[in-house]
Design a protein that fits this description.
Blueprint (H helix, E strand, L loop, with lengths): L3 H44 L1 E2 L6 E2 L4 E3 L7 E3 L3 H10 L9
Antiparallel strand pairs: 1-2, 3-4
The protein binds zinc ion (2 copies).
The site of one zinc ion has 7 residues, from loops.
């Protein structure tokens, strides 16, 4: 025969176990969401465009691609970025000495 005290203890153990299981599930869910968020952020980071001269992050339409065709992005608003890049551009045609 099970005593009243033993029943209470059993109920308490079951409650603790249920809470632990719930915490475990919440943590697993949280980890899953975090991993998904990281993957999205990583993709965004990879697709981000930086100015080849000043390295500022560019938004759509805020930059121009190098006119010499090296593929660098250059601030549209800052002529200095374009000019500096053109002097250092790897696609710059060699000027005969
Ligand atoms: Zn720039
Ligand atoms: Zn270039």
């Amino acid at each position: 025969m099970t005593s009243h005290v033993e029943q209470q203890i059993a109920a308490r153990i079951a409650a603790v176990r249920a809470r632990k299981q719930q915490q475990h599930e919440q943590r697993a869910e949280f980890d899953r969401l975090r991993a998904a968020g990281l993957a999205v952020r990583k993709r965004q980071k990879l697709s981000r465009v930086f100015c080849g001269t000043c390295a500022r992050v560019q938004r759509k339409g805020s930059y121009l691609r190098c006119p010499l065709g090296c593929g660098e992005a250059l601030c549209r608003s800052s002529a200095g970025c374009g000019n500096t890049h053109l002097r250092q551009c790897s696609s710059r045609p060699e000027v005969g000495e």
